[in-house]
Design a protein that fits this description.
Helix content is about 35%, strand content about 20%. It is α+β, with helices and mostly antiparallel strands and about 450 residues long. The protein folds into two domains: about 250 residues, DD-peptidase/beta-lactamase superfamily (Beta-lactamase); about 130 residues, Alpha-Beta Plaits (2-Layer Sandwich), CATH 3.30.70.1070. The strands form four sheets. It has a five-stranded antiparallel β-sheet with strand order 2-1-9-8-7, with helices on both faces. It has a four-stranded antiparallel β-sheet with strand order 11-12-10-13. The N terminus is likely disordered. InterPro entries: Beta-lactam/transpept-like, Peptidase_S11, Peptidase_S11_N, SPOR-like_dom, SPOR-like_sf. This is D-alanyl-D-alanine carboxypeptidase. One of its GO terms (molecular function) is carboxypeptidase activity. Pfam families: Peptidase_S11, SPOR.
Length: about 450
């Protein structure tokens, strides 16, 4: 009898055992504070799955997706060619592995640098590209953050081009999905680089770190990443006929568990994606050939109103972050530049606001006096600062005309943000003095 009772209860015991095992499997994912994931329909922008998708995470080498975005942008605009030379500085060659191992003073082509990023995730190549495009690693990081804002990536701050540990460098799974979609939409002519399985460099054949290429049908990139602080990260673009998704997993405990989880997300959600493309691009290009910057990033790709946002910097500290030197200006020495891209950290939606509610900028005055409030490698950021300044000092600038003008420095085009229309030096100086009382740094300049 006792034996029969045991047999009769066996199915129930097996069910309980299965439930316990399931709980043990699920518990680590739930307890993993580094974990975040999202699956986005790349045809419509609809979020199919998300978990902590708007929580700040360390991007690690997913950072190189933005490094490549800016490289592709330079190629598309003609500023670079795939055959252009990328020279490795002492700083670049000293980056820790993984790396190509180019000695200081050595060089590779832009195409080789690109291939080393998408396969080996070479940190030295990332820094070398950053220095070529941004003049310095820090300057390029500001360009990266400005570009992130233009693409609607409101939860992202970049401090370097490679993703090596930096506590201030943060992103979100949703932002990485936005960037993944933008790379394909904006640069289809270069996107195939991400599907490179391996490439030959010297006597070496470098394999792609993305193990899902060739393993999961339809996977065509994009990027892996790992640091101890971030865990194992992966962004995948996948297509099946007319269906396409971009999926992100951040904070995996191992490369295998990350890959297995990504494979499961793909199997689950790709069949549920739409086979019909929505109208227009999901992610707005920063600027078209006419210089206009429409914002079409879908609300589905952006954090909701309850999502965490970077802490704003105190208004009174803007001058310190901008780096303007008042005494230098007064003494008439070399022109200082206020790097407005740092303002993106203080006001994450400033660039988007400048596009949604832009001020009318005038033509560059041919003569007279003006006051400059900022300069940036991003025209959108420069215009955003003009908008912000106009709103903060309407009384001072009531009769002034905002405008931007360009200049080139170390191969980078910068946009000066200025207010013109002042009849005399004194008028411009007085207006600038009034702005400084409002904690807005500036200086007067004659056209």
């Amino acid at each position: 009898m006792a034996h029969r009772k045991f047999i009769s209860r066996k199915p129930a015991l097996l069910a309980l055992l299965a439930l316990a095992i399931g709980s043990l499997v699920a518990a680590p994912a739930q307890a993993n504070s580094k974990y975040a994931a999202i699956v986005v329909d790349a045809n419509t922008g609809k979020t199919l799955f998300s978990s902590s998708a708007d929580e700040p995470r360390y991007p690690a080498s997913l950072t190189k997706m933005m490094t490549l975005y800016l490289t592709f942008e330079a190629l598309a605009s003609g500023k670079l060619k795939t055959s252009s030379t990328v020279t490795f500085s002492k700083n670049a060659s000293a980056e820790p592995p993984t790396k190509l191992g180019v000695k200081a003073g050595g060089s590779v082509t832009v195409e080789t640098a690109i291939l080393s990023l998408v396969t080996k995730s070479a940190n030295d190549s990332a820094t070398a590209l950053a220095e070529k495009l941004g003049g310095s690693e820090a300057g390029f990081a500001r360009m990266m953050t400005a570009k992130a804002r233009q693409l609607g990536m409101t939860g992202t701050i970049f401090r370097n081009a490679h993703g090596l540990p930096n506590d201030a460098q943060r992103s979100t799974a949703r932002d990485m999905a936005t960037l993944g979609i933008a790379l394909r939409e904006h640069f289809p002519q270069y996107y195939d680089y991400f599907s490179t399985r391996s490439f030959k460099y010297g006597k070496q054949r470098l394999a792609n770190h993305n193990r899902l290429l060739g393993r999961i049908k339809g996977v065509d990139g994009i990027k892996t990443g790992y640091t101890r602080a971030s865990g194992f990260n992966l962004v995948s673009s996948v297509s099946d006929g007319n269906r396409r998704i971009v999926a992100v997993v951040m904070g995996g405990r191992t490369a295998k568990s990350r890959d297995d989880h990504m494979a499961e997300l793909i199997r689950t959600w790709l069949p549920k994606a739409s086979g019909r493309r929505g109208g227009g691009d999901l992610v707005a290009k920063a600027a078209d050939e006419s210089g206009k910057s429409p914002i079409r990033a879908l609300a589905a790709l952006l954090p909701g109103s309850g999502a965490p946002k970077p802490k704003p910097r105190p208004e009174e500290n803007i001058a310190a972050y901008a780096g303007i030197e008042e005494e230098t200006v007064e003494q008439g020495s070399a022109e200082p530049e206020v790097e407005v891209v740092e303002q993106a950290y203080a006001d994450p939606i400033a660039a988007r606001m400048a596009d949604i509610d832009p001020i009318n900028t005038a033509a560059v005055p041919k003569s007279g006096w003006a006051i400059q409030v900022a300069s940036s490698p991003s025209e959108v950021e420069a215009r955003a600062f003009l908008t912000r300044t106009t709103r903060s000092a309407r009384d001072v600038l009531a009769s002034a005309s905002p405008y931007t003008m360009t200049y080139d420095k170390d191969g980078v085009t910068y946009y000066r943000a200025r207010f013109g229309g002042f009849d005399s030096k004194n008028a411009a100086w007085n207006a600038c003095g009034a702005l400084k009382k409002k904690k807005i740094d500036c200086y007067a300049v004659q056209q």
